[in-house]
Amino acid sequence: MPQLIGMSRTASIAPLAAPDPPPVSAPLGLRLRVDKLCISLQAGSPAELVERAESALHDAKFFEFRLDALPKPAAAIDPLRKFLAAHKDVTALATCRRKQLGGNFAGALAAELDVLTKAAEAGCAIVDLEVESAEQAKASQLAHFRGALHAAGTALLISFHDFTRTKGLDHVAQRIEAFSPDFMKVVSTARSLSDNLEVLRLIENRSLSAQVVGIAMGEEGLLSRLLGPRAGAAFTFAAMGEGAEAALATAPGQLTMRTLRDLYRVEQLDQATRIFGVAGNPINHSLSPLMHNMAFRRESVNAVMLPLKARSLDDLLNIIRELPLAGVAVTMPFKQEVLPHLANMDPLTARIGACNTLRTGADGKLYGFNTDVAGVVRPLQRRMRLPGARIAVLGAGGAARAAVFGLVEQGAEVFVINRTHETAVALARKAKAKSLKHEQLARSRFDAIINTTPCGMAGVKPALPIKEDELNTSLVFDMVYNPMETPLIKLAQSRGIAVITGLEMFVQQGARQFEIWTGKPAPEAEMQRVVELELRRRG
Ligand code: NAP
């Protein structure tokens, strides 16, 4: 039976499994309440580790100290003690994972337990011990360790890590529960979007009776990092800093504190938050989460958009159904493939044969729209009368289809020109447009020329989709938006020809998505500003 993560239409908390064998020692009495975001820190020396914590204090008060990343973990205990004495509001989690369990510590189990005990005595509020270590330890060794933690008032977190896959997490949870720790942490590796469901279910099923942390590592596991706290996780991990500093992430797929907090508002997501996604492959450079999350925030819509790296349509449909998702922005390579799965779509989407926007109805069915059309038509309508306008479309791929069908519908006379001429002829025939051979361009005059080829993007040759003497037009519209000022846009501007950039199209198609999903007018100027800033930052 499908279970609804965080949207529980039915109560979905599983009864607590009775631990077997009996607990080695009881957890601390009251639950230790911690912040939702924990910055994981590692460094080459104890001084550097503490420096990193000092410099992150304005962002967070909860840190994981990866002592195993140091050449001599024990050397960090004194600096750590001083740091924690000076910052009483900091919650510290100490980890000293051994090499055979995926960490960096070369010492034996006894040495690991010794470092963790000293970290507890130095003021760390939580120590992380792997379930394998807990199982390997002799009963007396473990009892001694737990006694020392108890005396120091330190909570025990027992963790599990699978660096290859997500499988059998319930069994893992039972192994951890056998020790009745204060925190349970289960970390797997996502190979698909659906792997997130196993992690989120584990959190949801156990978080009323235990303090659970669940994460699926890797790009596909982003969902678990972002939705874990909403599903009931005690906290999730963040990397420090931005840019080069973000390379200091201690696990694959880890996001920075600022990204989690400012872009995804992880701490504010609650059961009423509607979840949207932008799905495709690749997806990590998509600007849609930035644009939509800003728009949601500005318009006070309790919603979040997450990037969904989907390796297959089945995987995507599964996540849409099970989470459930309220809507999805669909990008390459799923725009056509998704059509047979729609309960209904607008007539233009059906004719174009491509859908870039999904909305889930109250009946759970999927409804499809194509807002790329509005992304082309609206910027042009602001500048010219479309009925009767002569418009050349360069390219005959997916983006060209939206332009050609949309503009023909508006009454424009559309000419399709493509590298592979037969494809231009086929598209023109289907859309009731005309096709032209490239050689005919120089002899023709247009009201607008639209580039729908990737020419102009970094690395694509030729950089210009047409020659200088073929630019016989009053307006140039380049769909490429990265870079914003493409060679074609620059050439047009140098000739005094009006331009529409791909950025405007991107914002317009996104603005229509926002309206379809929320029923509110989109904050277009703000959407454009945030995307433009980011494109300039990326250079
Ligand atoms: P697509 O389906 O792969 O189509 C690409 C088209 O460009 C094809 O007609 C192809 O010709 C032609 N082409 C490819 N490389 C070429 C080259 N080196 N020289 C000449 N022609 C070339 O791609 P798409 O989805 O339509 O996307 C095309 C561009 O539009 C991308 O740069 C994309 O980023 C941009 N886009 C922007 C927005 C926006 O919101 N601003 C929205 C959608 C798309 P053949 O038929 O000969 O292969």
Main features:
539 residues, alpha/beta, TIM Barrel, Rossmann fold, 3 domains, eight-stranded parallel beta sheet, six-stranded mixed beta sheet, disordered N terminus, binds NADP nicotinamide-adenine-dinucleotide phosphate
What does this structure look like?
With 539 residues, the chain is α/β, with parallel strands linked by helices. Helix 10 links the parallel strand 9 and strand 10. Helices cover 36% and strands 18% of the residues. The chain has 3 domains: 232 residues, Aldolase class I (TIM Barrel, Alpha-Beta Barrel); 122 residues, Leucine Dehydrogenase, chain A, domain 1 (Rossmann fold, 3-Layer(aba) Sandwich); 126 residues, NAD(P)-binding Rossmann-like Domain (Rossmann fold). It contains 18 helices and 20 strands.
Write the layout of secondary structure elements.
Elements: E1 37-41, H1 46-56, E2 62-66, H2 77-86, E3 91-95, H3 109-121, E4 126-130, H4 131-136, H5 139-152, E5 155-161, H6 169-177, E6 183-189, H7 195-206, E7 211-217, H8 222-231, E8 236-238, H9 257-263, E9 274-280, H10 288-298, E10 303-309, H11 313-322, E11 327-330, E12 344-345, H12 347-352, E13 357-360, E14 366-369, H13 372-381, E15 390-394, H14 398-409, E16 413-417, H15 421-431, E17 434-435, E18 448-451, E19 475-478, H16 487-494, E20 498-500, H17 502-518, H18 524-538
Parallel strand pairs: 1-2, 1-8, 2-3, 3-4, 4-5, 5-6, 6-7, 9-10, 9-11, 12-14, 15-16, 15-18, 16-17, 18-19, 19-20
Antiparallel strand pairs: 11-13, 13-14
Helix pairs in contact: 1-2, 3-5, 7-8, 10-18, 13-14, 13-17, 17-18
Bound molecules: NADP nicotinamide-adenine-dinucleotide phosphate.
